[in-house]
Amino acid sequence: MIVRLCGRLPLAVRIAGARLAARPQWSLDHLVRVLTDERQRLNGLVTGDLGVRASIASSYRALGGEVARLFRLLGTLDVPDFAGWVAAAVLDSSLDDGVAALEALVDAHLLAVTPATAPGQYRYRFHDLVRLYARERAEAEELPEERITSVSRALGAWLGMAEVMSDQTPGPCYAPIRGAAARLRVDPADVSDVDPVAWFDAECAALMRAVSQACALGLDELAYELAGCLERYFDLRGMYAEWSETNSRVLRLCEDTGNLRGQATMLRGLIEVRTWNNPEQDADAMAALLADATRLRDTFAAVGEERGVADALVLCSWAHTAKGGYDQARAAGTESLRLATSTGHLGGQARALVALALAAAETGQIAEAVGKLDQALVASRELGNPRHEATVLQFLGIAHCQIGNTDVSQRLLDAALAISRGCGDRYAEVLTMLALARLDLRRGDPSARAAAEAALAWGRHYNMRHHVADALSILGEISVAEGRPASAVPYLVESVAMWRKRGWLSFLASALVSLGLAFASSDQQAARAALTEAREIYTQLGDHPTALAVTRHVTGLRRARRTGTDG
Prior knowledge:
Layout (H helix, E strand, L loop, with lengths): L1 H4 L4 H13 L5 H9 L1 H7 L1 E2 L2 E2 H10 L3 H10 L7 E2 H8 L3 H13 L4 E3 L8 E3 L2 H14 L2 H24 L28 H21 L3 H17 L3 H18 L2 H17 L8 H18 L3 H17 L3 H17 L3 H17 L3 H18 L2 H17 L3 H18 L2 H18 L3 H15 L3 H17 L3 H18 L2 H15 L4 H18 L2 H23 L1
Antiparallel strand pairs: 1-2, 3-5, 4-5
Helix pairs in contact: 4-9, 6-8, 6-9, 7-8, 7-10, 10-11, 10-12, 11-12, 11-13, 12-13, 12-14, 13-14, 14-15, 15-16, 16-17, 16-18, 17-18, 18-19, 18-20, 19-20, 20-21, 20-22, 21-22, 22-23, 22-24, 23-24, 24-25, 24-26, 25-26, 26-27, 27-28
């Protein structure tokens, strides 16, 4: 710990050792406590004529005026490293002048340069103790307002770059919500050769720290816009904990400052994570989705952001479908599509069409669902968002499987899987694997089990609660189809328990039917209870043909019981 607090700087470690040697009464823990306070750490690294501060100061005093100013102002940033354009923003200078000043600091051994990142940019970083000294000098030599202005310019540079890269990153096609924060104006043509995902890979740690610093300084506009730019990347990389933590922190700031647009933008992303990637789901997830989406709709409406309202209504539509409110789902989806169309929100149009397709499919209107999805596919391709294109292809594949078009389903799902794997999008990949497992089960293909087991493993790894519940249900169905009902029961018991917490009624009813069939040969009382509950849910949903089919299963159990008793 002492070596780490010394930043592994040989001089600092030597001084720490000398202080311990001169004070035998000190314990190692005591020195750790002395060095833990960043504001006092340099004071603790002095012994005799040796001092870390004095060593750094000699290099600092040799700097030219503008280079010294850059050194001080960079010390006010909380980020681990940065590219050359950050220095230009801090100095409010040209890129060439900013990089030249950085290189002067490297020559003075006050900055280290790291190998080029994937986007081809060199990055610079402070040694921890040098950063502390730079911050000391900034506090001593720069006015507080100049320090804040400098930090804001740097964060605005990250925002300008992140906006362009986020627009090109596969992910949820929400409306980009722009606020009033000052930002670097970046022409997308100037960075057309930069891979946006690789850019985020290089900048993610700095961006997350930038959001935290914006929150600490009360810069709510910068905070929510920066956090919003990270959402697609977080989703693509499966960084759901980081997404939740970042948005939650910014949401609290926006609530404190009364920033409704920021609140709505952060809540929109949080709803996504809470609904689909919550590791601790203790209540009805779909009821929570409806409540949160209704709040989101009202908040976006309060600031006149119709594209945001369209996004919120899609979430309302999904929640209504899950709870069996199909008329409300269609109404919400239709209004979302109207708003998205009138505001030119192409991603919103694609999402609304998928929501309407889902409501149609749940009520057995598969032809209508396919028609909506075909329209959504056109919109997704026009949008240029491969993530949503893969999503639409998945739902089309599922719909064609339901009506027996297995060859078409296979082609669509293969295309979706190729896109998801090409983007490194694990969430979309898992959903496609589940759809392929169901397709293989329908065709009697033994590869169904491997696909479902792989989907289950990834679903558990990323806390994809919906996918985990579905994978368990499929594995139970596969075991029943293989003539091993006893092996199916554990899968289906867990699936039913999860669907109760998810609150998606049609999925719960389906899992209950599978559980009833699995129990039929070993525990008729449990089988009858599961099937009776499933029948009640299907009746509640208005799906009377399926309810009647389940009734036949219950009747079959009664006959089997009487036959057994007579025998």
